[in-house]
Write a structure and sequence with these properties.
12 helices, alpha/beta, Lyase, Ornithine Decarboxylase, Chain A, domain 1, binds ligand LLP, 2 domains, 9-stranded mixed β-sheet, 472 residues, 8-stranded parallel β-barrel, TIM Barrel
Length: 472
């Protein structure tokens, strides 16, 4: 979402420079509940606390940068999704957003299933005790080892992504004497993004099998997806349970899901007519958006569940099909809002007439999303309250390139000083999971906080960890 420049000025600029920002908030100390995890609050003393713990104490104990995850919020979001979808549907948390053993246990305890897309994610899920039948394996290029491990473990579903994979999974299942439940991932001809969906050029991508045949409309369904169904139904070692569609990420508008559901139901109808079987499952994937800044306005799980349920029911009734069991795969919408990244302020550089560059002790190695997607984030001073005037700032990291930006445009108090703590909210998804060792940075820990207790669930990397891999 683009935001426009506002005439309110920072202390050092009469004319605001180019940027994507709105007015400074009336109170720089306020914490907008849309972007902060549930138990985050500013204490009477002025510092911020999460789960009842002062961030200054967390910084002291665990160091910075650190991802601080509100376990209470994570669990509450799991329950909200599970309750919203009810017993006729399954919620698969998308592990790519952020996965660790503790997260797997929370999911298990809160009654969610898990979507994994690599051997590493599968290993984490199994190691932490997620029952295999509650795991779905994704991926456009699964290795033989990954397939074998998943079939052997007895995962509840493998989502097939290509013709070659149909043969490979069937072969592995036959060799292991199993009948493997599978879904077929289809591309429905709609690619959804934040506030719009694009109905062209959608089949031109690496995932899934297209519903549309060459040159024909996606509605027709005579494409590679229909052929994949034919092939899977002929193989004894595969049990085709449903059709899967994932249309994009950070989506706020339900219209794209509506088109997707209609086209998936169209394929189910075709399968019934052609093969005489009614498939019992539909998976509409993940992609539901969250608030990174107060301008973002995401849907609540119960609104999403109602919208998706209504669409699927309506389309199935129109086609005379029994309503299949629905599943969804939210990753960001569960993990994203539950964590913030805690940084310590280092160098401050005021560029006269432009903005102040605020360097923190992390950067693109712990949050690549700003550099990679031009993502927008919020930021707040959390180690104290401040009555100083707003200062137009850019929060940058310590890496050796100018694109190393964490928060492109933000207002911070003008008395900001080295040693202050900043927190960037909504970093629970796709930050630790996409972190790198660029410049031999040590990836930060993930600290889970709940009811006044904090514990490391993923520890900070050490120089020893780095050197252990360097065996030359
Ligand atoms: N299911 C499938 C098959 C997916 O490919 C994905 C995400 C999800 C579920 C979960 O989507 P979510 O609800 O988290 O949006 N690195 C990017 C996001 C890539 C998502 C890829 N697939 C980012 O940082 O925005």
């Amino acid at each position: 979402m683009s935001r426009s420049a506002h005439p309110a000025g920072p202390r050092h600029a009469d004319v605001l420079p180019e940027g994507h920002y709105t007015a400074p908030p009336a109170d720089l100390n306020s914490l907008d509940p849309r972007v902060w995890a549930q138990t985050v609050e500013r204490t009477p003393e002025g510092a911020v606390a999460v789960g009842g713990l002062d961030v200054r104490r967390l910084a002291e104990e665990f160091g910075t940068p650190a991802y601080v995850m509100d376990e209470t919020d994570f669990r509450a979001r799991c329950r909200a999704w599970r309750d919203a979808f009810g017993s006729d549907a399954d919620v698969y948390y998308a592990g790519k957003a952020f996965l660790s053993r503790a997260v797997v246990r929370w999911l298990h305890e809160e009654g969610l299933n898990l979507d994994v897309c690599s051997g590493g994610e599968l290993a984490t899920a199994l190691d932490a005790g997620m029952p295999a039948e509650r795991i779905a394996l994704h991926g456009n290029n699964k290795s033989d080892e990954e397939i074998e491990r998943a079939v052997e473990a007895g995962v509840g579903r493998i989502v097939l992504d290509s013709f070659q994979e149909i043969a490979r999974v069937a072969h592995t299942a036959a060799r292991l004497g199993r009948r493997q439940p599978v879904q077929i991932r289809v591309t429905v001809g709609v690619e959804a993004h934040t506030h719009e969906f694009i109905a062209t050029a959608h089949e031109d991508q690496k995932f899934g099998l297209a519903l549309a045949g060459g040159g024909s409309s996606s509605e027709a369904g005579e494409g590679p997806a229909a052929e994949a169904v034919r092939r899977v139904l002929m193989l004894d070692s595969l049990e085709l349970t449903g059709i899967h569609s994932h249309i994009g990420s950070q989506i706020f508008d339900m219209a794209g899901f509506e088109v997707s559901a209609r086209r998936v139901v169209g394929l189910l109808t075709r399968i019934r007519d052609e093969h005489g079987v009614e498939l019992p499952e539909i998976d509409l994937g993940g992609g539901l958006g969250i608030a990174y800044t107060p301008e973002d306005d995401p849907r609540e799980p119960h609104e999403i569940a109602k919208a998706l349920g209504d669409i699927v029911t309506r389309e199935c009734e129109a086609a005379g099909l029994a309503v299949p069991r629905l599943s969804v795969e939210p990753g960001r919408a569960i993990a994203g809002p539950t964590a913030f990244t805690l940084y310590e302020v280092g160098t401050l550089k005021e560029l006269e007439g432009l903005r102040t560059y605020v360097s923190v002790d992390g950067g693109m190695s712990d949050n690549i999303r700003t550099a990679l997607y031009d993502a927008e984030y919020s930021v707040a001073l959390v180690s104290r309250a401040s009555a100083a005037e707003p200062m137009l700032s850019r929060v940058v990291g310590k890496h050796c390139e100018s694109g190393d930006i964490v928060v492109r445009d933000a207002f911070l108090p003008a008395d900001l000083a080295p040693g202050d703590l900043l927190a960037v909210p909504a970093t629970g998804a796709y930050c630790r999971s996409m972190a790198s060792n660029y410049n031999h940075a040590l990836r930060p820990p993930v600290v889970a906080v709940r009811d006044g207790q904090a514990r490391t669930i993923v520890r900070r990397e050490t120089e020893e960890d780095l050197l252990r891999l360097d065996v030359g």
